[in-house]
Specification:
By secondary structure, this protein is an alpha+beta fold. It is built from five helices and eight strands, in the order H-E-E-H-E-E-H-E-E-H-E-E-H. It has a domain at 41-68. A hairpin with a 6-residue loop joins strand 1 and strand 2.
């Protein structure tokens, strides 16, 4: 929700200092710079997929090639990460949503954990 409010209602952007690109998250700007301006690429050794950050490659391998899934015990959904399963359960089975006080948008995640994920960017 916090990310939604900053990008949609406060107009917060993280501009690239090398081109016209402007990200809505610091992490997106970091990935943009690495892939577009620094030419950093991490190719999958099992298919033609390539990304600019190693954590995305790890998730790709787990989801596409290792078939690691975290199944929901209440429906047919299966997540590729435990945190995605937790978010699914809260939003789909417990009905937990985080409504925006400025528009009709309702998030499935409060966004509080995003602060920790963006530290050091």
């Amino acid at each position: 929700m916090e990310r939604h409010k900053k990008s949609k209602h406060e107009g917060i952007r993280y501009p690239c200092d090398q081109c016209e690109y402007a990200a809505t998250q610091p992490g997106s700007l970091k990935i943009h710079k690495a892939s577009i301006h620094e030419g950093i690429s991490y190719p999958c050794d099992q298919c033609d997929y390539a990304v600019s950050d190693p954590s995305s490659l790890k998730r790709h391998r787990e989801f596409k090639h290792e078939d690691i899934r975290y199944p929901c015990d209440q429906c047919e959904y299966a997540a590729s990460k435990p945190s995605d399963l937790k978010r699914h359960h809260k939003s789909k089975h417990e009905g937990i949503r985080y409504p925006c006080d400025k528009c009709e948008y309702a998030a499935t995640d409060s966004g509080k954990n995003m602060k920790d994920q963006n530290k050091g960017l």
